[in-house]
Amino acid sequence: MRTHEADLCIVGAGITGTMLAAKLAAERQLSIVVVEAGEKLFDLDKRFEHRQRYLDYRENSWPGDFIEDQGAEGIISRTMAVGGQALHWAATSLRYSREDFRIRSLYGVGWDWPVSYEELEPYYCEAERRIGVAGSQGPESEGWDPRSEPYPMEAFPLDYNQRHLRDWASKADIEFRVTPTARNTRPYDGRMQCMRCGTCNICPTGAKYSPDFTLKTLLDERAIELVPNTLVRRLELDGKGRHVQRAVAVDRTSGEELEIRARAFALAGGYTWTPHLMMLSANSRSPNGLANSSGLVGRYMCGHRPMWALIEVPHRIYPGLSLSSMITRRFMKPPPGNPYIRHDLALFTHTYGRQPRLRDDGGRLLLGDNLMADWRQRSERGCARVRGYYDVLPAKESRVVLDPATRNRWGDPLPGVEHVEHETSRSLRDQTHQQLMGIFERLVARGRGKILETFVGEYLDHPSGGCRMGDDPSESVCDGTGRTHDHENLWIIGAPTCVSSGCVNSTLTFVALSLRTATFLGKEFPRRS
Amino acid sequence: MFGEGSRRNFLRTLLVWLGSVSSGLLPRWVLTARSASAADGVNEELLHDVASVVLPSELDDGARMDAVKSFLRWLRGYRAGAVLDHGYGFTEIRKAAENPAAGYQNDLTELASRAEAELGADFTSLDAQQKRALIEKEVENRHAATKELPARPDDSHVAVALVTHYFRSSEANDRCHRRQIGARTCRDLFTAAEEPPLLDDGSG
Fold this sequence. Notes:
The structure holds 2 protein chains of 2 kinds.
Chain A: E1 2-11, H1 15-27, E2 32-35, H2 47-57, H3 103-107, H4 117-131, H5 160-170, E3 177-178, H6 211-220, E4 225-227, E5 230-237, E6 244-251, E7 257-267, H7 270-280, E8 299-313, E9 326-328, E10 345-350, H8 368-378, E11 382-392, E12 399-407, E13 413-418, H9 423-447, E14 450-456, E15 461-466, E16 490-492, H10 507-522
Parallel strand pairs in A: 1-2, 1-7, 2-4, 7-16
Antiparallel strand pairs in A: 3-9, 5-6, 6-7, 8-11, 8-14, 8-15, 9-10, 10-11, 12-13
Helix pairs in contact in A: 1-6, 1-10, 4-10
Chain B: H1 4-19, H2 28-36, H3 44-54, H4 61-77, H5 101-119, H6 128-142, H7 158-167, H8 170-177
Helix pairs in contact in B: 3-4, 3-6, 3-7
């Protein structure tokens, strides 16, 4: 059996595993092996070609970024590759608000985190530096929590469409700002300025941050060992059951079994695959899986629900101009003691009802000049999408399960994700929707618009949880640093540790948590001189 | 000097090269030769006839030729069975359907035979109104319940596929708005703050 040995084994080469590796490699003396089930797709030179295939044929812009027999019911993405889901991401980089970490104390619902905004804030700054976030800080009165450092890059400029939409929304006394994103507004960290190619899922210039850039640097510097195409199937404990001794894996290409021995193990497989691996690692001493004395591994899966309106606005919108979305945080901060009704609000351009079509409303066939005339007429007024995310508090039954009926080719049961909303959250759902609807109606009334359609997502976006953090080992899987309560050398990284989901995109928070874990995990190793 | 195979290769190379040159710059004999190349099994001459009535008349001959050429290039680049985009929120792994070229040629053949049967003439020799009537009848038959254009050409009628390919393009988007937007091109970041310049075709 092939053996890899290192001081630290990181399972998962997505954005959180990458950040953990980068920080530890820079600050501590240790050897790091990063094991990733998926392929290594370092193909910046092919991105223009992949982008073109995506535009012309809708082909997968990251060929080879998934594993055919490694899927799961209820997951939000099939991506499993070196770089993870942040290969595809739009790079929206928002912080959770101060309130998100204290919702039990402030609103009497859910659970407080064992970490405060103030404790996490320096790691938010570090995350923004490492991935390169362009943004501008809004006023605290508009819900922008204080920050100790400016954004690393100036924000994206408002484009022509956005200027009109911002002015339109301000008639309803709602001030939108450009959403911070990990895309370069100037050359940064060896990557070029955004050229607004309009395909952020496959950024051909590398102006959008994705973890492959960091991993490539780490490999060039020989700071880590990367083992791709290798699926970790279980973790095994030492005789006393307090330490993870080795990871047993399979090389997906050759079918060869291998082991990774390390002093510490960090699981960075995200909200589904991390709890999945812990459950797969059940043994006679831990029959419910590793680090699961609380019975909460795979429980309290959370996320935020989107609700949006498509609104006709009295301005021409040019499709294909837009650089980014805009956001307001003012609805994220109800005063303490008020009902837990809070959400962000983002504003996008949209082409709903403004695309060329084959028939008009009367059913008349449109070809040639008629089609163009119809399209032009409908494009005189634009369309905006106004979207709110609100936190959906999870029930304990919101969970990842092992599904014995569905197995990969190695015979391991695959996971299924079942989101179950906590009754408190269910009881607030109608009121939250009413509040959002009221905002949509105010925008329309003040801005001479028209609601074309509203939509409530039945899925939860930016899912997290499954190994939540806490001070009480009977109510959590790991402590506030990410170290599991049950095993001294087993750490959970990023998304699974979240207690709740806040109401903005979560990746920056996952990264900040990962960097914070790196600080504590790093104390196990000598400082680099 | 050339064997039969070499001459064929030379002519093919010449036609490919000529095919990449903007149509407005080419003499009539070249256009005829290019039509006769019948790329991808799709009768190019008939396709141009269809284009002449389903694309906007504001396109000049060159622009219309370019639209047809782009459609044929798209067909040539089609990869049946290629894995399609999944990304975030779309977990189903789907694959590209069979190449639609054969279906398109069937549609063109059907148009030609209807012209023959109903009007006793070549489709090519019909006037625009007659061509449009025949095409509309076929599209009505096949797409009675279709309101939206597909996102890209699929197994629709060849006329709908050609319309889709053109009207979903960056060029059509510019023409619709009469502005140089260039939705599919990589562009300077900071010029986005300004209203896109007028399209330089006299229509803006």
